[in-house]
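RECORD TYPE: inverse folding
INPUT: structure tokens
STRUCTURE:
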């Protein structure tokens, strides 16, 4: 019984007793015996309840369990929810899914109620910025006509306490919202090409890609404002077969679909997530993309994966991996003087039988493959990526050291005793045993 209910009951009892006093002609200052039957008729309370109230002088007191918190299925997860709320994660569907992964067996309504009651834990939102212009028509494209891409960044805390920054490549179909994300140790141009090729393999190649003015795409603009493409990116566009459009500088909502996807990845996928290595992280990212693409988007009234397969894939071109495209998946590395190549912050050995100073490297899952520079089909060695910071040495990485052999027949012979006989031969030097014998 809450405070409001107790106050209401107290007022009802007090008013009923006062009316009984007036009806009986009771004078103030004299004792008055309350007739419980009459009081029960006026208040509607049971005789048992009135007897309990009579012991307290008809004063309604709070219940003995008032203030105690009942343990529910949600009780073991309240601290976890508080942590997510403090990180600005207030989406009940996201929190409920994370709790299910941790073993939560309760319902979603309890989670929603708890979030509503603890909304004060969510940090204040960023201040509202000035409007970006007059109202206009939302920009729309035909199926398979345009994709948007961007980079997002996240800080990763290692088990040793150190922190490094990882990059997340995102690409989304502007027509239906089908998405692709992939994590890399950095946002270098070679990783941009790898992420785009993997996205095209999943979503097919559109007619155009919309992006911002990143250095790996455009170097400058001419006097008429036309972009001057990065040399490697210009070659990449010709090899794949698509065009690129650039956003206006400092105008991020031009490519709002990719900007919103970056925000969704940070708030929905990244927050509070732990992973063993980047391979496992990318596997979880693909599963997350499949989950999001197979959810009904009520604002658009369609499922992105179904719309993309039915309409966008009919216009977009499937990506065929040729030798010209394969070279982007195999970035070039220089072999160091001690026979190592560096890739993703780790060093891997190359056999000394390979004489060139350049090679090509690619990682597929937990395996790193090193190929010849001129022959991309010639595999030199495969390393098992353990994600340790120690160098990975391969067989045949270093030349064999010269060994001297006898020039004449060896005639001197020695005898090596077995371990048991060797122990008996040295027993006389065991002074502890000798002391025990003398004792």
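DESIGNED SEQUENCE:
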């Amino acid at each position: 019984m809450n405070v409001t209910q107790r106050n209401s009951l107290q007022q009802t009892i007090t008013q009923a007793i006062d009316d009984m006093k007036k009806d009986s002609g009771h004078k103030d200052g004299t004792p008055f015996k309350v007739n419980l039957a009459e009081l029960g008729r006026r208040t509607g309370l049971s005789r048992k309840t009135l007897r309990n109230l009579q012991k307290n002088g008809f004063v309604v007191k709070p219940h003995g369990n008032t203030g105690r918190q009942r343990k529910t299925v949600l009780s073991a997860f309240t601290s976890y929810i508080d942590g997510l709320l403090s990180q600005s994660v207030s989406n009940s569907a996201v929190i409920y899914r994370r709790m299910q992964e941790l073993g939560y067996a309760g319902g979603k309504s309890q989670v929603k109620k708890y979030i509503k009651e603890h909304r004060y834990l969510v940090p204040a939102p960023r201040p509202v910025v000035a409007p970006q212009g007059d109202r206009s028509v939302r920009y729309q494209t035909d199926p398979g006509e345009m994709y948007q891409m961007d980079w997002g960044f996240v800080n990763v805390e290692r088990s040793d306490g150190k922190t490094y920054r990882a990059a997340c490549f995102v690409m989304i179909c502007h027509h239906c919202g089908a998405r692709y994300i992939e994590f890399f140790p950095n946002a270098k141009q070679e990783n941009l090409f790898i992420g785009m090729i993997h996205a095209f393999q999943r979503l097919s190649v559109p007619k155009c890609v919309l992006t911002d003015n990143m250095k790996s795409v455009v170097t400058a603009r001419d006097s008429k404002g036309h972009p001057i493409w990065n040399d490697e990116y210009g070659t990449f566009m010709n090899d794949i077969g698509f065009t690129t459009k650039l956003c206006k500088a400092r105008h991020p909502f031009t490519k709002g679909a990719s900007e919103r996807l970056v925000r969704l990845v940070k708030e929905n996928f990244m927050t509070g997530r732990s992973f063993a290595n980047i391979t496992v992280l990318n596997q979880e990212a693909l599963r997350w993309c499949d989950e999001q693409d197979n959810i009904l988007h009520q604002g658009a009234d369609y499922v992105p994966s179904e719309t993309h397969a039915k309409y966008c894939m009919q216009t977009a071109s499937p990506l065929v991996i040729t030798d010209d495209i394969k070279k982007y998946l195999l970035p070039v590395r220089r072999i160091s003087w001690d026979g190592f190549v560096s890739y993703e912050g780790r060093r891997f050995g190359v056999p000394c039988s390979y004489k060139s100073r350049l090679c090509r490297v690619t990682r597929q899952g937990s395996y790193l493959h090193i190929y010849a520079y001129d022959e991309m089909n010639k595999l030199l060695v495969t390393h098992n990526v353990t994600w340790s910071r120690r160098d990975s040495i391969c067989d045949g990485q270093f030349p064999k050291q010269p060994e001297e052999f006898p020039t004449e027949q060896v005639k001197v012979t020695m005898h090596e005793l077995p371990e048991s006989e060797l122990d008996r031969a040295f027993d006389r030097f065991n002074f502890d045993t000798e002391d025990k014998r003398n004792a």
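NOTES: The radius of gyration is 38 Å.
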